[in-house]
Amino acid sequence: MHLFHKTETQQYPEQKPKLAPRFRGRIVLTRDPDGRERCVSCHLCSAVCPCDCIDLQKSAAPEDWTPEYFRINFSRCIFCGFCEEACPTSAIQLVPDFEMSEFSRQSLVYEKEHLLIAGTGKDSGYNFFKVAGVKGAGAPPKSPKSLLP
Amino acid sequence: MRMGIEILVDGTAVTLRPDDNLLAGCVKAGIDVPYFCWHPAMGSVGACRQCAVKLFAGPADTVGKIVMACMTPVTAGMRVGVAEAEAIAAREGVVEFVLANHPHDCPVCEVGGECHLQDMTAMTGHVSRRPRFEKRTHRSQDLGPFVKHEMNRCIGCYRCVRFYQDVCGGTDFGVFGSAKNVFFGRAQDGALESPFAGNLVEVCPTGVFVDKPFSANFRRKWDMRSTPSVCPHCAVGCNISIQERDGVFRRAVNRFNASLNEYFLCDRGRFGVGFLQGPSRLRVSRDRYGKVFARHAAVAHLAKIFASGKAVGVGSARASLESNFALRRLAGAARFYAGLTAHEVGVAQAALAAMRRVSTATLAQVARADAILILGPDPQVVAPRLGLALRQAATRPNDALLAAREIPAWHDAAARTAMAGQKNPVFVVGPAPTALDALARLAVRMTAEDTVAYALEVAHSPAGEVTDALLTAKTPVVVAGGSAALIVAGAKIVAALEARGIKARFVPLLAAANSIGLACMGAESAGSCATAGAQMVALENDFFGAAGLAAAASVTVLDHIETATAQAADFCVAVGSFADTDGMFVNLEGRAQPFYKAIFGENDAPAAWEILRDAGILAGILPPGTWPTRAALLADMTQEFSDLAPCLRALPAPGEPKPPGLPHRFSGRTASRAHVDVREAGPPMRAESPFGTTMEGAAQHGAEPLVWAPGWNSGQAVLRMAEADKDIFLFQDKIPDALMMPEPPWSYDAGSGVEEMSAHSPAIIARGWA
Ligand code: SF4
Ligand code: SF4
Ligand code: SF4
Ligand code: SF4
Ligand code: FES
């Protein structure tokens, strides 16, 4: 029956395909609504990655959780989207872009400067630190010297 | 199976140890009961209410009652319900309260992935939060260069204060506030004073206390290679695990050894290992003008020195048995000296002579001793973990008293209350105050010479308070150090007690990790070697210092840190540290302990013995093909020194399955070197190691280098792991002439507590301990 269907062939690359926002293509690192890097080096994306192609290192500064480096080896990535699902900060997102061909595999190794974009990506309002409760997101600090409960 | 008590848990019969409480027994038997405030080394206080289980009065009881498992003794035939609906609901309710104020910040918490709170929350099945109010917050403190404080994560279990005050005797840390506003910290910001403060990182079930240098070099637990090792910073030789990734040292954590350090390390050990990543590592071989030499050129240089026949080897009390032996073989026994002062050599030789004659105590035996005599310097300064074991013995509830009042030993609060106002028979005699004085029944100050005379008097005359206490004790321990004469006198006391059928034991106080190992090879102090025209080869020691050795023709140093000696030397050969190589130390209990290559970098220096072997073969001193493996060298060494023969037991049996070296969830393997080369290099291969180098291997539960069990990601997983029983004790056959040992002169040196390698650790320097 397929014989009688209208042909689905598209004239790519002259004619670009329409891709939904949920399309799992090239991976980016996004920023929170205040423009700060979202990634907090929690290593959940690298842990969940089935091909182990994400590696990163937390910054050495004590209170800074942004990554010192963040590397994705796209020659290994299978675009499963697990990293995006695991990310607690919405930092890592897959975007509708699959045009990543290169002449050498080495060029498929992306560092943080290649991954980081200026915007928030799909999750526009989310700021992890506003909900995490570690940096003053609760009630004002209690004084330990007060005996009031 | 050990003698046990059979009970019914959820209808299944399990056998528990009679000295465990119900919680400890269940957890060890593989039954998941969540808990927070109970700690295997600190006992129960019943504070957190997390370990609720159902206890039934008898077979006919269908209602039962909720009890705290950690406060319930195990009695024969008792019927317990862990999976009872009511108990499950109670435990989930408790965890919900516990989490009411806990931040939602596991992603930015260093403890995430190895957090006892995460494990316990998952164990109770609690998943969603109901409270909608704002969480209480605290201001965290600066607790110094070792420990980071994030007080918002506290769940109020009180483990930290119990550890800091009750176990370590610290006074500068405590709990403030009341009701739901309790704060665990110091009165003001400032470095924690206790030399055991670093254990808070592992004692706290949450991320309130974090290893600060580790935070600057952070990786998740599942992402690091973890290798069993031995702390090289004093003669106790506490068991540690070294965790690394990408050839970079990340942190040292406690490795449980039931008869040695158990659950705790000292801060010199935990943070001293940071020297591995410090700025003063000696990583390339060079001459005095800074010209860099490759390995073969350094070997050729050494070969020339040894071939000249003028080589004098200076061994080291912080280098492995293997490297010392190799140097001794190359230089010749008559031209092999120890990089120690004559006083230090005398002390180590006296300790060795004592160990060959009287029983030595393990640290666990020290902690359970019922009478203690300390002669000489402060053990907490020289060998800190021994100081902690002595403190545990001093504050330990008295068995007879507990039995009379029917208090089980794990019932921490009751046992401490029963002990209030009483002091165990601990006696401190020496020239200077010690950290244990306040706990001692008697602390006497007298000169070193008088201390020796006093100790000999105790050994020979059965009268006086101290002698009486030692004579009425069942397992007394004598600790002595600082002077060869004091060690001999201490050993004589033990011998006199042993002669009366008392199980007395001795501990010599020594400073360096392999003091006893080097003493076994019997070298004189390098201070006494005739140096004119000699070509000195100094192995991993800083004996000559910046002044060098004027009379020597040349000084060549083999080391892995930039010591003053290395900087003044004519030639430096970079060799691997204890974390870059395999080797063995002998500790102050006479325990021979292997350590393994833990850091896998790109250009790791080989072990000193490998360089020396190559030089020896090149110089024609060793026949070609000598010591192809460490096993071959050990075989040679044990032949020459029969004392060391048991060391061979540390070698893995051929064909023994190798447990994996990497955690099963190790990540990022196809990216970590991709910036250098997108094609992945193969894993490092090491035929000799008892561990695999990859994630693959024979997973023998309990033998893995990583402390982990299903559902147990924190260090508490150790309760679920099989107890490794591979300890090797030397000097088991005693020479029965202890009372006739010659008495050496009484020269005395208390030791500074500063150790060469840890003094290069950035954290130790920041703390002002270098
Ligand atoms: S999961 Fe998200 S926040 Fe965590 S390391 Fe990956 S990108 Fe960063
Ligand atoms: S202490 Fe445990 S539960 Fe709390 S934030 Fe850290 S990892 Fe998460
Ligand atoms: S700081 Fe940690 S150990 Fe201390 S009470 Fe809080 S959770 Fe418990
Ligand atoms: S007591 Fe000694 S061996 Fe143990 S951790 Fe401290 S320095 Fe290391
Ligand atoms: S562990 Fe039993 S009450 Fe805390």
Radius of gyration of chain B: 27 Å
**pLDDT < 50 runs, ≥5 residues of chain B:** none
Number of helices of chain B: 23
Shape descriptor of chain B: globular
Structural class of the secondary elements of chain B? alpha/beta
Ions, cofactors and other bound molecules: iron/sulfur cluster, FE2/S2 (inorganic) cluster
Please trace the helix and strand order of chain A, writing H or E for each element: EHEEHEEHHE
CATH architectural name of one domain in chain B: Roll
DSSP strand content of chain B: 15-25%
**How large is the radius of gyration of chain A?**
20 Å
> What is the helix tally of chain A?
4
Strand order of the largest sheet of chain A: 2-3-5
Beta fraction of the residues of chain A? Answer: 5-15%
Widest sheet: strand ordering of chain B: 15-14-26-25-24-16-17-23
Structural class of chain A: alpha+beta
Overall mean pLDDT of chain A: 91
| Poorly predicted spans of chain A | none
Helix content of chain A: 10-25%
Tell me the major beta sheet of chain A: 3 strands, antiparallel
Gross morphology of chain A is elongated
- Summed over residues and divided by their number, the pLDDT of chain B gives a mean of 93
